[in-house]
Design goal:
single chain; 108 residues; mainly alpha; 5 helices
C-alpha cells in the first residue's frame, strides 16, 4: 500500500493526471479487497487472488503504455523507476493470499 500511495503522490501532476487517477483507483480496489477477503474461505481467497492477478496485469499494461508515451521529463523517469517496487508489492500480496489458500486447502 505504501508503494501505491507513493506512486499516487508522484503522479499527481497535470501531465500524468490520468495515470494518477488510475493509481488512486487501484489503491481503492486493493483496500477494498483487503477489507472484504475472508481468509477462512477458500472461495474468497481464490477470488481475491484472481482480482490481484487482474490488477497486476493491468498495472503492467499501464506502465508499458507510460513507457511508450514517456517523454524525457524527470517525472516520467521517476514514475518508471517505481515500476519494480510497485509490482513487487502486488506480488507480495499475491504470495500472502496464496499461502492462506494453501493453509485452507490443507485443513480441508
Amino acid at each position: 500500500m505504501k508503494q501505491l500511495n507513493h506512486l499516487s503522490d508522484l503522479s499527481n501532476t497535470e501531465a500524468l493526471s490520468s495515470f494518477h487517477r488510475y493509481v488512486r483507483d487501484v489503491n481503492e480496489k486493493v483496500q477494498a479487497l483487503r477489507s472484504n477477503i475472508n481468509l477462512a474461505d477458500e472461495s474468497s481467497i481464490c477470488d481475491g487472488k484472481k482480482a490481484l492477478l487482474r490488477i497486476r496485469a493491468e498495472f503492467q499494461k499501464q506502465y508499458r503504455q507510460l513507457e511508450i508515451d514517456s517523454t524525457q521529463s524527470p517525472t516520467h523517469e521517476v514514475l518508471y523507476q517505481t515500476r519494480a517496487p510497485t509490482i513487487r508489492a502486488v506480488r507480495r500480496a499475491l504470495t500472502s493470499v496464496y499461502r492462506h489458500q494453501i493453509k485452507i486447502s490443507q485443513n480441508n
